[in-house]
Every structure is written in C-alpha cells, then in structure tokens.
Specification:
This protein is mainly β. It is built from one helix and 13 strands. Residues 14-19 have low confidence and may be disordered.
Amino acid sequence: MNFTGTWVLFLAVRTVTFAPGQPAYTLRLSADTPRASRWSIKMERAYLRGSQRFSESTVTILEEKVRPQADRLLWETKIIGYFVNGRSVSPALFPPFVVETDRQGRPVRPILLESPDPERLDDWIEDLANAISLVLPDQPVRPSDRWSYTITVGLRPPSEPRFLKVAYLLKGTDPEDRNDSLLIEMDASAPLKLVWKRPEANWTASGSFQIAARFWLDRSTQLLRKKESRIRFGYTLEREQRSGTEWVQTTTFVNGAITLVGQAAGSPS
C-alpha cells in the first residue's frame, strides 16, 4: 500500500464568461498560507488469481499539509490510522511522504515507481493507479470541456506501459451536491506487457489496466471534498522454470478490481 499522490486540493476557482450562458472556470491550486486537512479513505480490493479468490477492506486516515513555495506547493502526507478488515495496523509502518507540485497539480519531479516484480505485480498496478492524481487544465474550461496529462511510467522496452495518458472532463456543477461542487471525471487505460528474465526463471505478463475516477471540488471552501475511483485490471502471467534439463511452463490468469472512496473531514457524504 502506497499513497504517492496528493489528496487535499486547495483550489482557486475563478469564473469567467465566454458567451451568455456559457460560464467557464480557471482552476488553480491555491494556498497562500500553510493549510491542513484530514481524510478518511475506504478501499475494497477483490482479486481472482487462478482459482483462488482474495478480498480485503481497508480504512486509511490521512493528514495532509500544504505549504506554498513561490509558484509551487509542497505537500506532506502522514498516515495516522490504518485498518485492515477492521483490525488496526500501526501507522508507524508507513513513513510520511512529500510531493512538490506546480499550481496545476503537476509533480515538479517525476514520481518514481519501484520496478515491478512478477510476484508482486498486483501491488505495482495499485501503486501506478495511486500515482495518478488530478491535474488542472492550462486554459479556462467550461462544462463538457476535456484536457489531458501524460505520465512517464518509466518501463523500458519491450515492457509496457512506458507512458500513460490521463484524460479529464469537467462535468460542471453537481446538482446532487446542491451545485456547491464542481465535478471532474478522469479516466486512463493502458496495455500491460512485462518481461522478466532471471537465472531461476522467466516471466511474461500481458493484459490491460483501466482506472476511472471522479473528483468533487468545493466552490466555497476551495477544497477537494471527495474522490471516488475504480481500478480494473487483468493479465496472464506465464512462468518458465528450469527443472533438470527441461523448462516447465505454468500459466496463471489474474483479474482484479479496486474501489476507493475518499472523504474530507467535515464534508457532506
């Protein structure tokens, strides 16, 4: 479990008008003084690996602080509570982490993922999903406008993905939230193709990965108040291992789904 993105967004929302009845929004991260917020994040994981099923429910309590530094923002996130299937796990096992972004949410330095391991590929896919966050557009946007941002994953050929294009859509104000929030949808997908060659065995994984998310931006408090996301992935893992003078091949089919709901303290559910 690794949270590499920023959770709290302090948002400067400025409304401009292109034409009558066509409001547009200039979206920027705003924090003129240090600010902090607390989040509760509920996550459900369900995997099918071959004939074995696995499920897990976790609740994470985060404290996140942001400090302005000229045209950049420094985010520090600390886990203060963690529960797995209702059982408490010591937060001391998870060191704080820091991310620096510009005012559009783009990391100043690339977020580096650990090299994927064939025995822990599910964890790597989850870390990849956690590295995807909300990046705001360059220009003012109106409801139904789209923009995109490309993340460098860092895999080397022939492994994929090396890059991941993330697409965003401004849905507009949310009537179910009394129009107090702007709703932004996000989605990304990529093929999975990974190859490992080691003295003891060779592995090949091939499949796909998809993530869809929604963000609610509070127009009055200028904060991100809620996030929902769903991750789906599936792949075939083939392993060749030497046994005496022969190579023995095994094939495992893996499917997984992860749902996540993050709620800021004090925000309506």
